[in-house]
Amino acid sequence: MLKKYLLAAGFVLLLSSYTTTDDVYICDSKGGKRYHLSKDCRGLSNCKAEIKKVTLTAAKESGKTLCGYED
Asked: Which residue of 1, 54, 55, 60 sits 20 to 30 Å from the alpha carbon of 18, by its own alpha carbon?
């Protein structure tokens, strides 16, 4: 019984690490096309607008793709 419980708990932990609610960073400019995993990504160094923290889901829904420096 304990073995089944531990196996189920491990599965839940594994699934929780694959959620899409992680925060990412975007340059809130008109031409911004990428999202970044770190606020310190060098891809954000040219951003003249505000750098915003958004969910990964929101970034993808707005058409943004992962920055090439973090791919």
From this structure: 1
